[in-house]
Amino acid sequence: MIPDYSTPGSKGTPWKRQREISLGKSIREEVQFKTDFFRENVNNTHLTEEEKRDIEILLRALHDDSHWHKGILSFGDDSIGDKVVLSEERKSYLELFVERHLLPENEEDRDDDLVKEIQAVRVLGEYKKGTIILYINNIKDSANETNAPGFYDLPYLTVTRYVYLHELMHAYFVRKENKGYKYDREREEAFAEFGALLLLDRLVRTNHRINHASKEELEWAIRHVEGKRGALECYSRGANLFKRLGQDEELASKMLAAYPKLSFPDLV
Ligand SMILES: [Zn+2]
User: ∠247-143-194 over CA atoms, to 5°?
Assistant: First the structure.
């Protein structure tokens, strides 16, 4: 079980106010992590009470205690990444490609090798209509198979955190000021990985309370992104971007803020 530093310590103090005190700042209710929304959904899963609690603490801290990413993400008064659901569906990239019309409508026109390839790859997360979906069974399988290092000895939380950061980047790209932008897979997935690695790197360097992350976690995440090949090649370009530009956090942050208005065609 992971410790919850944002839970109220003393009795008699309203929970929300106590939490504001414990985080050392005031978070307006409308931009807080949507805890009730999360709980309502998570209660319909087969996760243990401890797993539900650990995931909630991890995500709530990442979202609400957001000063760690100050300067990397800037989105004014919007709240992004505040709505999260967990899905037990074992979704594959084949289903995702079909949904996103990335394959011919007619099944007979599809490339068999490509279909086989993407059918074997799990979808770990998705950003859909303002909500981040985390495919928790796929995340657990991936944590085992890729030997993810354990956050408090729980590798699935390491993967959960990275997937959340990746989906948070999608939410960032479609924030209010980029209204009208249409998903451009090749570029957006590379930039989402780039941003997620940059955020994780910042977490490793700030090593902040509940969010503390290790160097091993960043190394695992880079390997995870680099491992996306074939039909998912565009994702792995995010690791290249991070290796080339990640050291210059200011420049990297400006690029992420400018995307998708500027799409840097020479880089991705
Ligand atoms: Zn993505």
Answer: 25
